[in-house]
Amino acid sequence: MIVIKSLDNTRHAYEMALRIAGSQRTNLAFARAMNRDLPRTKKQVSQALARQSSIKRPIVNERVKLKRATAGNLQTVIYGYGSGLRLDKFTASRPKAGVKATIWAQRRLVPASDPSRGFKRNGRFMMRTTKARFPIKGLFGPSIGKELPKDQSLEAFNAATPQVAERAMHELKQILKLL
């Protein structure tokens, strides 16, 4: 959710426009302002998410969605969905030490991969949970939904917030010209 900080001039201009134009038109102006910068913000958040988690950009773009604001609901949402990605979606290999993958911009040993129990089957990295042949489980990396509200992607989202107040004032002026 985007939170607009209350600046004195912005708040004063909003109150004046609210008196002149009415609440419905003022809400429409704010919704337009929020929606205008939303695709650019989504792109910046997706780029930051791909950098911070080492998930490839097409996968991030596919799983990061947005919900636009309306005059009745002044809230824009950028959300990610899906569970942890399989390790074969990352640059992964199986040396003698276990399974190594490039996750969070570093080449690291996957903690759950025991060297004697990890293996690759049909392009997927798997691990035996016991000494017996079965059961086996897949090894997974980070989830887009869990990584979205962290670090660089959160900073990219917050960087777009100040532009909304300025754009809302512009939209209000355009609506008031039409009256």
End-to-end distance: 31 Å
Helix content: 40-55%
Question: Helical segment tally?
Answer: 6
The whole-angstrom Rg is 23 Å
How many separate domains make up the residues? Answer: 2
Ranges where pLDDT stays below 50 over 5 or more residues in a row are 1-7
Number of strands: 8
Q: Output mean pLDDT.
A: 79
Based on secondary structure, the structural category is: alpha+beta
Architecture overview:
It is rod-shaped and about 75 Å long. The chain has 2 domains: 8-81 and 145-178, no CATH class; 87-141, no CATH class. Helix 2 (23-53) runs antiparallel to helix 5 (151-159). It is 46% helix and 17% strand. The chain has a 3-stranded antiparallel β-sheet, with no helix packed on it. Strands 6-7-8 form a 3-stranded antiparallel β-sheet, with no helix packed on it. A two-stranded antiparallel ribbon has the order 1-2. With 179 residues, it is an alpha+beta fold. The protein is built from 6 helices and 8 strands, in the order αααββββββββααα.
